[in-house]
Design brief:
Length: about 160
């Protein structure tokens, strides 16, 4: 896989312990350098951030971060996904199920430029406390279906 995977169209990584530095995990060495020019779908579970490994973001058409069906929220800041999403110019389907660990604090500095996804047709956002930061920046002229589930706020 490290040399070349020309037919690979979908790549899914299940939930493991949080991976901050892929070099700490020898098993990831082949993944760090793999090339998959036809990769279109990327599915990352709770502890994986899309920037950790070199995926061809500009060619992805489908990205899932977290898994709403299995109720596995990605443990990362929603704003940390903004730059990756900006690179996904061919994206048609996007599902984000994010449990921002800093939900009680305002987000730190992030790129506030618009997130332009000209091909996006389906967008699902579940459980993000800073969802308005994404929704206010999202430019998706072909969007046909939006699924939104706001976070649960318990009565105090």
């Amino acid at each position: 896989m490290a040399d070349h995977s020309p037919l690979l169209r979908s790549f899914s990584v299940p939930s493991f312990s949080r991976v901050e530095d892929p070099s700490q995990y020898p098993a990831l060495k082949g993944i760090e350098s793999f090339r998959a020019p036809n990769l279109r779908q990327l599915i990352l579970a709770e502890s994986w951030h899309p920037s950790i490994l070199p995926f061809p973001s500009s060619r992805l058409t489908n990205i899932h971060i977290g898994d709403s069906i299995e109720d596995v929220r990605a443990k990362l800041k929603l704003t940390s996904c903004f730059d990756i999403l900006r690179q996904c110019v061919e994206l048609t389907h996007c599902r984000l199920y994010v449990d921002d660990p800093d939900d009680s604090r305002p987000p730190t500095t992030f790129n506030a430029d618009p997130i332009v996804l000209p091909q996006l047709r389906f967008f699902q956002l579940n459980w993000s406390y800073h969802d308005s930061l994404l929704i206010e920046r999202l430019v998706a002229p072909k969007l046909k279906e939006l699924r939104y589930e706001p976070p649960y706020f318990s009565d105090m």
